[in-house]
Amino acid sequence: MNKKWEHKSISEVCEINPNSIKDDKFDYKSIKYIPIAQLNEGYVDKYISHDINSAPSSAKRWVKEKDTIISLVRPNRKQHLFADDIPDNLVTTVGCIVLRPKDKKELIPEFLYYATTSPKFIQYLTKNATGSTYPKTNIHEVKRGKIPIPPIKKQKEISKLLRDIDKKIRCNRELSALFEKISRIIYKSWFEFYEPYNVKSNKHIPDEFNNMKIKDICNTIGGGTPDTNNTEYWEGDINWLTPTEVTKSNYPIVSETERTLSKKGLNNTSAKVLDKYSPLLTSRATVGEVVLNSVKMATNQGFIGIEPRKEYTRYFLFENIKNRKDEIQRLATGSTYDEISQTQFKNLNVNLPPKIKRKEFELISKNIYSKIECIIKENNNLKELQNYLLPLLLSGKIQINNS
């Protein structure tokens, strides 16, 4: 730790939750809302629009430009955001804390964000969280947390370096989304609007297509969860995916999982290991999300795993299922949570294109998703680099040489 840099508590240097929708200056009739579920590590999936009179009761914290937002619920999940280029009516939940420097001549907003989302500070928040199901850190503990206060020049140098890495990660995410969109456009053009075929309208299915059930094209595989209290079942070398990881991710490909199973754990559950690049559909609670696995993995019971039997249907099925999310969600029912069964899913109709067109689409889409996979790897490496540099920069152990 750099002894020359003073360390101060959050309560000393920050305004905490400085604005509310109850403020006199908040005169908007609608809000853009960030619930914790939409908050990721440095970005938001999407803002949820609400009329001010029908907004959730938890939507209270008014967020301003360059504020820092950190989820206090399960802080180990690293759900936080630097509020840059945001709408004026942005609001977040009371499950988050909003921080703003009291004096920008002492502490700049960008440095505050990196100091309070550093591995050390996140570890502090996690250690002081209470509760078993939804561990949450008390605001008073946040106030007591300390961060270094280097000279402003140093703060700017450190923040610029880290922001440049974040900008590259953001650019890569946008490129990934663009590639995904291209694959979807080609799919729709060929297999929904039938542009390569001589048809009068997309209501006329080409003669070359075969109307089939999903069960005629692929096998479906469920998942399972072994006893979570038996340590022999966990921390092995078998990846094990949960729907929460899918909804947290901003990518269509999953390459690693938060938890792993041992062979003994796998044998004591209904889960099976699925081949690489199998479409994995979330089937309960959050229904209708679908990803590809770039490594072999098992899942919990919240998935339907799809292993194609017919040639050149892997990427066709992946796009087909992605484009039927609303239909799949409508079929889901349940008293505790919505769920679509394997039987319901297997009986969905599919208009299967001819083999030659499936093969052509497979080659194009496979190439697109291989590029997305490379982007994901680069972003993971960039995030690892940032996490490595962050504590060293904050402690003053390494210096930035602007020359």
Query: Runs with pLDDT <50, length 5+?
Result: none
What's the CATH topology label of the largest domain?
Adenine-n6-DNA-methyltransferase TaqI, Chain A, domain 2
Highest-level CATH class of the largest domain: Alpha Beta
Principal-axis shape: globular
Structural class: alpha+beta
Name the descriptors.
alpha+beta; 22% strand; single chain; 403 residues; 11 helices; 5-stranded mixed beta sheet; Helix Hairpins; Adenine-n6-DNA-methyltransferase TaqI, Chain A, domain 2; 4-stranded antiparallel beta sheet
Provide structural commentary.
The chain is an alpha+beta fold. It has three domains: 6-149, Adenine-n6-DNA-methyltransferase TaqI, Chain A, domain 2; 151-206 and 353-403, Helix Hairpins (Orthogonal Bundle), CATH 1.10.287.1120; 210-352, Adenine-n6-DNA-methyltransferase TaqI, Chain A, domain 2 (Alpha-Beta Complex). It is built from eleven helices and 22 strands. Strands 14-21-18-19-16 form a five-stranded mixed beta sheet. A hairpin with a 5-residue loop joins strand 10 (129-130) and strand 11. The longest helix has 41 residues, at 355-395. The radius of gyration is 24 Å and the shape is globular. The model has no long low-confidence stretch (mean pLDDT 94).
